[in-house]
Amino acid sequence: MSKPRSEKDPMQKLAEQASEKAWKADFLVEVDRAQHLARQHDLVGLLIKQAMERGEFDNLEGAGKPLDLSENLFAQDDMHMAYKILKDNGFAPYWMELGKEIDTLRAKLNQEVDDFKKYTGMVFSQRRSSGAVSRYEQRKKAFYAQSRENLEEISKKILDFNLQCPVSTLGRSNFDVDGRDEQYNERHRRFNAGLKRIG
Description:
Elements: H1 10-54, H2 80-88, H3 94-123, H4 130-164, H5 177-198
């Protein structure tokens, strides 16, 4: 007959006790380490402050001059020369150029959206004929189709950028084109519904 589930296996009890002891020991070691680092930080800060008061940092070589940031810290060792040649000839790595292109496309799309919002406001600021409203609807459909194409292009470029970027923390967050498209449609439906109530 098997043991009831409420009773723990002796090996499991032993493992839990060992784990508890190890955790407590690790915790105490980490506390000691943190206190040591804090003391070191205070000591280093005190030494720097004393050196500043004595004027030891006055008239240092290079004081007041810009830092030399010509070396690419993200480049792999074997790529330094290639990046230097590119930089000297006015080029940047592909992922950097792609990042600039993404920024330009996003800014252009945002401007187009703002312009279309202004156009929509102008169209519905006064009563319009049915012909003006139908022209607006045609322009709206064309605008949505073009915006979707632009969003898809930006999304692909962001994906390419993230694959090419040497450091994952510099990656860019992408977006769901279908979700964005639906958000724009929903906002426009609400906007039109509000304008129809006014008119």
